[in-house]
Amino acid sequence: MNDAEVLPATRPLRGTATVPADKAISHRGAILGALATGTTRLRDFSSAGDCRSTLGVLRALGAGVEEGDEEVRVVGWGEGGPKEPGAALDCGRSGTTMRLVCGALAAFPLKAVLTGDPQLMARPMERVAEPLRAMGATVATAAGGVPPIGLRGGALRGIEYAMPVASAQVKSAVLLAGLRAEGPTTVIEGVPSRDHTERMLGAMGASVAASEARGGRRRVRVEPSSLKAVELTVPGDPSSAAPLLVAAALVSGSDLTVAGVGLNPTRTGLLDVLRGMGAKIEAEDTSADVEPAGDVRIRHRALHGRDVGASEIPSMVDELPLLGLLATQAEGVTEVRGAQELRVKESDRIAVLVTGLRALGANVEELPDGFVVTGPTPLHGADVNAAGDHRMAMTFAVAALVASGPVRVSGMQTVGDSFPGFMATLQGVR
To answer: Which CATH number fits the domain 23-225, given the four candidates 3.65.10.10, 3.40.50.450, 3.50.50.60, 2.30.40.10?
Structure first.
């Protein structure tokens, strides 16, 4: 469905919901499985369109990919490495696929072109091309530093790379390239980003270590390593749980539990901010796997505004549009700064959010690197455009629950990029 009309909530959100498996972990599990020797088994692999793009690219590179009802199995290339693709690698709409695969291929003597859908072809790729060039790979982007990416891999040397922008995707690409480089590779982060790659590398036998440096900077170092296959259960995606949690925080009387959600502390920034705004949240790690996971329960309470600065952005970057919505119903001012990365996602999420919330009646100001929301303000029905962005489509669908009339959201077809069945799940807890 391209458009969807979402009606206001008529009762509290209650019960228990589940969400799709974590996209970030699914991507990484499949790509690292292709780099490993043996068969990696990924239980509860994400069915999102972005992750299916990763599986398609890995198949084109010669990895064995078997999809069952309960797990995905990836038979790795081993020491022989990937085969040279006979055609351009189609990454669909997935920036994670494109950036991480570049890192995975950089050390192998092959040529590849990575391309994708029009939306992906407008996203910045020099940020991953630059460090891979410094390691010795040949990487070309189109004018403006966007895809397609032409890559010729080969012998690499380890580097020490200070990240100019917090990006788990770029960090991961450099670490993957470092697995087969000469000497150690170190990535230095000014603000820590999600650490799924480091956790998984360690579980698969790589020599990897993270340490805090002076001034709060984080250093992640990987030595040349071979990977062994693992079995991993992928937890629920906290970015997919976020729309449901925010919906329950907004709708009076709600008491909702989302089961089996990833609780990696580099991904739980929204939970911390919700608590800081007055929401009642209970979450406990009950997992014994590589990644922490558990149930998250949220009960509606009156909310107040809270500022969010640059140091908090990486742990909740995908959830920031939902925070903007949440702030429209909170008492006082909420200011988000240091979020310029939102400008180069699937859409310019700052501009799309501000335009959409204003159409719904919110008091919101656009900033170069964020936004300011003054609340609470009543929202009304309107037509809003998600600009082909799955995160924005879900944000505006949740907004409808506390509007005075129906909200018609254009661009709902993109929700399957991350949360297939989102509307059915949202309806199921209403």
So the answer is: 3.65.10.10
297-343 per-position pLDDT tens digit: 999 999 999 999 999 999 999 999 999 999 999 999 999 999 999 99
- The predicted model scores a pTM of 0.91
Give a three-class secondary structure readout of the chain: CCEEEECCCCCCCEEEECCCECHHHHHHHHHHHHHCECEEEEECCCCCHHHHHHHHHHHHCCCEEEECCCEEEEECCHHHCCCCCCCCEECCCCHHHHHHHHHHHCCCCCEEEEECCCCHHHCCCHHHHHHHHHHCCEEEEECCCEEEEEEECCCCECCEEECCCCCHHHHHHHHHHHCCCECCEEEEECCCCCCHHHHHHHHCCCCEEEEECHHHCEEEEECCCCCECCEEECCECHHHHHHHHHHHHHCCCCEEEEEEEECCCCCCHHHHHHHHCCCEEEECCCCCCCCCEEEEEEECCCCECCCECHHHHHHHHHHHHHHHHHHCCCEEEEEECCCHHHHHCCCCHHHHHHHHHHHCCCEEEEECCEEEEEECCCECCEEEECCCCHHHHHHHHHHHCCECCCEEEECHHHHHHCCCCHHHHHHHCC
* Homologous superfamily assigned to 3-21+235-428: Enolpyruvate transferase domain (3.65.10.10)
Q: Could you list the active site residues?
A: 318
